[in-house]
């Protein structure tokens, strides 16, 4: 089964009829990490909900895996279950997807719904929580009695444990400490190698620059720009809209302005160490 997701002329609006998503056409392909940027209110979170099949397109269609076509008129429990088993979504406000159980129960709930209960389930949950630097002393605490950062780790673990084909993360690093952010980065890079589609909404441009293979820029409820990374972040319009760009992009741009050269290959990732070694 092909893991592509294709959007054909997709629009979405609530009852006010103002378009939140305006005629979107795009193809998501496996073995890629997609970084989505945009100002608040540009449609990014609504886009995530649409991809996760939580809302239906008002017009147009979303085709999943070449076999499942979703339109406003077509939704049934069987299709919903099929897509739920293959698409994982961690919400921007992750507490909205937690039900108030213990940490351990939250992590295992979705997994056991899809796979049933097994003797080693608890160890599997602990393994994922450990990967995210979670405090094991809290595993029997009610999930609403722990910090926001710990809640986000629980939400992430509850999705990552499912090993789904498509993973959607809306601002996944908010509230995370630096060490956990590094661990999450490593996890996402490893998941990419498993031929998954990974979609990340974030305002952390430096993180996206270091991680993503493709970038999508939302503006005025449309896809304003989309291209391969890291070249995506060298779009000359970005500083005008966001007042900042990734540190490495700024460094490279300033170097080229000062030296009046364009010798740096912007299609390849460059770390600070690489830059200092070659352009000191």
Proportion of strand residues: 15-25%
Distance between the termini: 49 Å
Number of helices: 10
Largest sheet: 6 strands, mixed
Q: Which class of secondary structure composition applies to the elements? A: alpha/beta
If you average the pLDDT, what whole number results? 92
**Beta-strand segment tally:** 10
* Global geometry: globular
Q: Could you name the ranges where pLDDT drops below 50 across 5 or more consecutive residues? A: none
List the helices and strands in order.
Answer: EEEHEEHEHHHEHEHEEHHH
Q: Order of strands across the widest beta sheet?
A: 6-7-8-3-9-10
Oligomer: single chain
Instruction: Give me the Rg, rounded.
Output: 20 Å
Please give the share of residues in helix. 25-40%
What keyword list fits this structure?
280 residues, alpha/beta, six-stranded mixed β-sheet, four-stranded antiparallel β-sheet, 10 helices, 10 strands, 36% helix
Quick structural gist:
The chain has ten helices and ten strands.
Chain-wise SSE layout:
Layout: E1 5-13, E2 19-28, E3 32-38, H1 44-51, E4 59-64, E5 68-70, H2 77-84, E6 87-90, H3 103-115, H4 121-131, H5 148-160, E7 166-170, H6 178-192, E8 197-201, H7 205-211, E9 214-219, E10 222-228, H8 238-242, H9 247-259, H10 272-279
Helix pairs in contact: 3-4, 3-5
Structure commentary:
With 280 residues, this protein is of the alpha/beta class. The protein is 36% helix and 22% strand. The strands form two sheets. The chain has a six-stranded mixed β-sheet, sandwiched between helices. Strands 2-1-4-5 form a four-stranded antiparallel β-sheet, covered by helices on one side. Helix 3 packs across helix 4 (121-131). The longest helix is centred in the middle third of the chain and has 15 residues, at 178-192. The protein is globular, with a radius of gyration of 20 Å.
